[in-house]
Amino acid sequence: MNRVSAKICGLSTPQTLDAAIKHGASHVGFVFFPKSPRHLDFARAQRLAARVPGHIRKVGVFVDPDDAMLDAAAGAAALDAIQLHGHESPARVSAIAKRFGIEIWKAIPVRASADLATAAMFDGAADRILFDAKTPENAALPGGMGLRFDWKLLEGFRHGMPWALSGGVDAGNLAEAARITGATLLDTSSGVESAPGIKDVDKIAAFLKAVAAL
């Protein structure tokens, strides 16, 4: 088993999902956020989820969701994990964890070293932290924009919870990302796209082959 694994996020077609499965993704991400070009309706999510074998984890990505949204998405896609990408408080994250009883990820937007300390607030509430690049204040999306933060901020950083790295990771820089940060799970979305929301099967294959080569 490889030391580093990968999540391909924002999948929306059978062809790109199949590419992620074929080339060894450990996790696949489905986005439930209407403002995103990667947004899935529940019927489409259900059809895609049915293609995912049991050894690959299905992660639903949400931004400040209400319980009705979570109920519908988790049921349709048989989610293994919920990734929260908004301004959810530790109390809200804990409540979602208790309601669903599945793995909960909390995205932490990072621009400076002080941002890393925010992760400690979610100890005991979330199961995994996702360190992602902080988007501009007026950005329409909280992630998936191909931005990266200074990975050296995570160099030697010790965090008590499992965590993953996101934000501008692609086939060309993932080895550097893993080497600098020590991340054992790399998450990409725009890094395997030909245009916003349009996944590329060749880029997915290249990314996952590069992960396998680490």
From TrEMBL:
One Pfam family, short name: PRAI
Cited SUPFAM superfamilies: Ribulose-phoshate binding barrel (SSF51366)
Reaction catalysis annotation: N-(5-phospho-beta-D-ribosyl)anthranilate = 1-(2-carboxyphenylamino)-1-deoxy-D-ribulose 5-phosphate
A biological process term (GO) from this entry: L-tryptophan biosynthetic process
PANTHER family in the record: N-(5'-PHOSPHORIBOSYL)ANTHRANILATE ISOMERASE
Protein family: Belongs to the TrpF family.
Name of the protein in question: N-(5'-phosphoribosyl)anthranilate isomerase
Species of the source: Sphingobium boeckii
